[in-house]
What we know:
By secondary structure, this protein is α+β, with helices and mostly antiparallel strands. It contains eleven helices and 13 strands. Helices cover 48% and strands 14% of the residues. A hairpin with a 2-residue loop joins β7 (202-212) and β8 (215-224).
Amino acid sequence: MTARARAKWRPTLGMIVFAVLTTVMALPLVGLVFFRLYENELVRQTETELIGQSAVLAAIFTQEAEALPNTVLGAPIVHEHIDLPDSPYRPVTATLDLSDAEVLGRRPDAAPAPLPPSSEFLAVGAQLQEIALRTQIVTLAGFRILDPQGVVIAGREERGLSLAHIDEVAEALKGRYRSALRMRAVDQPSPPLYSLSRGTQVRVFAAMPVFVGDRVAGVIYASRTPNNILRSVYGERRKFVIAGLTLLGATLAIGFLFSRIITGPIHALVARTVEIGRGNRAALRPLAHHGTREIALLAGSFIEMAERLHERSDYIATFAAHVSHELKSPLTAIRGAAELLADEAGAVPGSMSQAERTRFLQNIITDTKRLTAMLHRLRELSRAESQPTDGKTSLVPIVEALRRSFPMLSVRADGRSGEAVAMSAENAIIVFSHLADNSVRHHATELVLHVSRQADEVRIEVRDNGNGIPRAVRDKIFDAFFTTRREHGGTGMGLAIVAALLRAHHGSIRMLEATQGAVFEVRLPTAP
């Protein structure tokens, strides 16, 4: 019964390639999902920059406020943000997170101040105003500098107005740094691509308290819109379209090459298997296009296997014809002799002499023996072609077995007789026993096995001193059923069995030129 893979749904190679290419094309789009991580990093970066710029302005504010006479400062505060009370450092870190932070509404407008700022703080604000404007030219950040009551003392049109009602400013007036995300005021409509980004719709506000001693002297209220790559993307949209088309073209080209290099040759190989299965021997040829090395190896191995199967089929057909022919002759002789004896038994007694009767019976016995020998050789040939190919041995035990089986032969081995070959002792005895039997049948009295090593092979030269083999029949001696001694009981199977057994062990045999007797060269792989 033919072994088949368990029936279940399996994706085709084309489907897998399509899925891979689609995934590759979708990677840029999938990247947009993770774009928020980058946006959040931009928000954090913006807040960190505002902290640094505000800290510098706060330091200048503190220096100026300390020199003011009769300065009215805010209430005493506790530095809650300080983790190490004994450390001289007062680090302020960014806290905003675009992914989960609440985005507040637009910054409330400034309100009238309950009390006007003092002239001293207005003087400080005037000095800081110029620094803030120069800083804004480079950093694009907006600054509002507030006094201890939250009144703007530097900030263009909002000077003199109060921002104390804004949440982050109110916290800063208590001595705690606060930041917030608020909807930004847009004077012009944003490009359509901006709708994909949350970061383009917000503005970062940071309120940094200014300390003189342990009291609040004011607030640096800074704001800036985070940097956003969508502006660059939209500005270079044509280039991105070209890049997308290029990516699409490259994907299609890869798909075409894959079809040409992989799926095409595989389909051709499948079609070739169908033709070979139908018995079309013209299909036993290489593919026109293999595509890859692996497919070339696969196709070559398949064609080679198919050729061997066809050769095996031809061999079986030829072998069956030879067997039929070889069995037909003795069976015909036996039947003829038996019919004559049967006719004589039914006729008048004495019509066949005793000598004739004995000759016919002897013919029956001889042909029966020949049939028995032939069947024995056929069984040996079948075993030779299906023998296990594992095991290893040397020529030393083989020579001893030949001496016991063929006492009429002087058997010896020279050279590297201890070299191990990749064949079991049982199979090696079968090979060399047939060669020894062939020597005995050609009247040899001496058999010499010369062993040598060549690379990864063991070469065994088998030489006898018999009558030799005629040159005219040397090309046929390994053919099954070919024999020059048919009248002496030869079956023509001995050397065929030797060749088959050696071939099964990846070895070989051939006949060499000799001035006396017969010389065979046997090659076998060395034992691992």
